[in-house]
Amino acid sequence: MAQTPSEQPAAASPTATTATPGPPEPSTARLEAFSDGVFAVAATLLVLNLKAPAGHHLAHDLAGLWPSYATYVVSFLTIGIIWMNHHAQYERIARADRTLLVLNLFLLMFVTLIPFPTGLLATRLASGANEQVAAAVYAATMLAMSISFFSTYIWSAHRRLFGDWIRERHVGYLLRRNVSGLFAYAAAIGIAFASAPASLAICGIVAVYYLLPGRPLTD
């Protein structure tokens, strides 16, 4: 006896035979978005260290604020260049694991700390009291920030989180370029106890060095 169309067995649903896909490959999109916001806030906070002079001799008083101008410029350039290099870094890093997220949080922690030693150093340079210690604290903050940035490259190389187009020689170049800043900031800490302005100048030179694009990563 022939079956009517309503009695015929229903065709198997395509989804019933399709294997359930695994979890998507973890991307860096949310990490980058969160980091961009933190960089913007940290850079904005720097301007709070600039105070309008209250004296009657405005030109003289403005000139006397040179420590605030100098520390602001170096710190703003540093944060801005970290942001630029962070952007370039995550063009090379294709995947993010939990440890990389933690390392990036440490980087952001030190980035947001930069306004504090910036104001501290500006105040101490203006007064001349304990300016060497303030300069050492400033350079140490930059060193801690640089170590945390460098650690993300180390971990990404260890866990092979880079994009497929990144070769071993590219990783070696990136590590060598980043480690040079560690030595410069460490030197700035020692020099701070001899000359606070010289220590600040070294930190500024490091910022200019990383402003340069470096060698293109090509095959």
Give the topology, please.
Blueprint: H1 14-17, H2 29-45, H3 58-63, H4 66-92, H5 98-113, H6 115-127, H7 131-158, H8 168-192, H9 196-211
Give a quick summary of the entry.
By secondary structure, the chain is mainly alpha-helical. Helix content is 69%, strand content 0%.
Would you write up a description of this structure?
The chain is mostly helical and 219 residues long. It has one domain (27-47, 66-211). It contains nine helices and no strands. It has helices at residues 14-17, 29-45, 58-63, 66-92, 98-113, 115-127, 131-158, 168-192, 196-211. Helix 8 runs antiparallel to helix 9. The termini are far apart. 30% of the residues are buried.
The stretches of 5 or more residues where confidence is low (pLDDT under 50) are 12-17
Instruction: Count the beta strands.
Output: 0
Shape: elongated
How many distinct helices? 9
Strand content: under 5%
Instruction: Give the distance, in angstroms, between the N- and C-terminal Cα atoms.
Output: 71 Å
Average pLDDT score? 88
Structural class assignment? mainly alpha
Tell me the count of domains: 1
Question: Over all CA atoms, what is the radius of gyration?
Answer: 26 Å
Helix and strand run: HHHHHHHHH
* Percent of residues in helices: 55-70%
Quaternary structure: single chain
Mind describing the biggest β-sheet? none
